Amino acid sequence: MSRLGKMPSWQRSFVVISMLACSMSGSLYLLGHEFQVQRSALGNHHILAVHGVLAMIAILALGSVLPFHLKAGLKSKKKWFSGFGQLSFLVALLFTGALLYYGPVEIREGVVMTHWVLGVLFFIVFLFHSLLPLNIRLTDKQKGMP
Ligand code: HEM
Ligand code: HEM
């Protein structure tokens, strides 16, 4: 049975891996740089640069869900809260990410804090939105359901 909002497997892997990699690299830098956990290993410029590049790839993945997944998801009337929630977080992460590069120095501290708080919220909502269905599908398979 085809389910509204279900992605082809290449796209699901691309979206899940790139969003997780972007969120994890951001979280590692956050731990190292803001919370001084293993600061020299986690809070260094390489991790920040890796996060910047993975963020670009994550935005490419976001672009791939816009034409079909959003429309199908809306029609299915399921997961609206997490779907719109994570979409809004991603848009806000894009803006705050751009401000981190090009914004005025005077507001940088506030932007950094806003960016990582939104990032952590996005990470949590994304796990619920996209990995829970995979989990349910695996459980269905174990039960021999279609
Ligand atoms: C209006 C916004 C959105 C709605 C209403 C929505 C709705 C849905 C629904 C109903 C499913 C379950 C499909 C199934 O069980 O087969 C789903 C799965 C999923 N969604 Fe969304 N979604 C939205 C936005 C997004 C965004 C922005 C992303 C990416 C950042 C995303 C990534 C995913 C992924 C990776 C899955 C799992 C795919 C799969 O198992 O085939 N969604 N979504
Ligand atoms: C797709 C979504 C995201 C985009 C577009 C994005 C973009 C960016 C950009 C452009 C930077 C600046 C990189 C640099 O200065 O070289 C940055 C920094 C950062 N991001 Fe993200 N990011 C995203 C998601 C996240 C997530 C999910 C988290 C955390 C859980 C996060 C945490 C951070 C942190 C802690 C910094 C360092 C801020 C600083 O101290 O300069 N980001 N992000």
List its traits.
mainly alpha, single chain, 80% helix, 6 helices, binds protoporphyrin IX containing FE, globular, 146 residues
Could you describe the 3D structure shown?
The protein has 146 residues and is mostly helical. It has one domain (9-141). The protein contains 6 helices and no strands. α1 (9-34) runs antiparallel to α3 (45-65) and α5 runs antiparallel to α6. It starts with 8 loop residues before the first helix and ends with a helix. Bound molecules: protoporphyrin IX containing FE (2 copies). The site of one protoporphyrin IX containing FE has 26 residues, from α1, α3, α4, α5 and α6.
Biggest β-sheet strands, sense, barrel: none
CA-CA gap between termini:
8 Å
Q: Mean pLDDT across all residues, rounded?
A: 92
Helix and strand run: HHHHHH
Task: Report the uncertain regions.
Answer: none
Question: What does the overall shape look like?
Answer: globular
| Number of individual domains | 1
Alpha carbon gyration radius: 17 Å
**Number of alpha- plus pi-helical segments:** 6
- What fraction, in percent, of the residue positions are helical? over 70%
The distinct ligands, each listed once, are: protoporphyrin IX containing FE
Number of strand segments: 0
What structural class do you assign from the helix and strand content?
mainly alpha
Beta-strand share of residues: under 5%
